[in-house]
Amino acid sequence: MNFLRFTLALLLWPGLAATLIYLGKILRSVTHHSGFPWAEGIALSGGFLVACVAFFALPRPSGIYVLGHELTHALAVWCSGGRVHSLQAGSKGGKVLSDRISPWISLAPYIFPFYPMLAAILWLAGGRIWPELQNFATPLLGLWGAIWGYHYSFTLGLIPTRQPDFLIYGRFFSVTLILLGNAFLIGTLLWLAFRPSPWGQTLLNLGTEWVWVYSSIAHWLSGLLLRYLPHSA
User: What b/e sequence results for 87-117 when a residue is b if at least 16 CB atoms lie within 10 Å of its CB, and e otherwise?
Assistant: First the structure.
């Protein structure tokens, strides 16, 4: 089974590359548009970078992160139709006991950003109640970027460790799904923010990118086989 997961993960890497290529095209397209909100983008990026520096330079809010981490496991269990028997969270770690396990449940905290999504929901809800909140969009985006920065700093800090979430299904398989899931998540957020094309067209373009990358690899491999395999006399 580990060999099958490793093979599947290896086969997904060209798809990951295709997704990143397409995300780069979307980002280049929206940033070249005359109406791109540079001030908001700089605030978001600045908050992200400040949080990454603070993660290494200041005491880390490990207990808060662990709580969000374990709550995400619990949410994944509930979304899968399972039951959570207990949840423990503290600065030194935590765990969730449930009646089922799956790659989605194990890896959900590394793909679904609990605190950034919670902050986004609170922001949207607050904007409905207090419309003048939108006047503070730039500083709020800086704060949101900082929350994202802490999320990704903790996530990247856990990947090299012997985290049980990774060991269950193999580190290579787990990291591949985490990278692919985050690429899809960031792509979805980019589309929601800028709507560069209709959703169906965006998915079609992404699928086309996948087909192009896999067909290019297949063409390259077939060329190698034709070149180096012995030919019949």
Answer: bebeeeebebebeebeeebbbbbbbbbbbbe
pTM of full prediction above 0.85: yes
Which 3 state secondary structure label does DSSP give 45?
Answer: helix
C-alpha–C-alpha distance, residues 187 and 20, integer Å: 9
What would the pLDDT profile of 171-224 be if each residue is shown by its tens digit?
899 999 999 999 999 999 999 988 888 999 999 999 999 999 999 999 888 887
| Domain ranges across the chain | 38-158
Amino acid in position 42:
I
Count of beta carbons in the 10 Å neighbourhood of residue 28: 9
189: closest CA among 84, 83, 116? 116
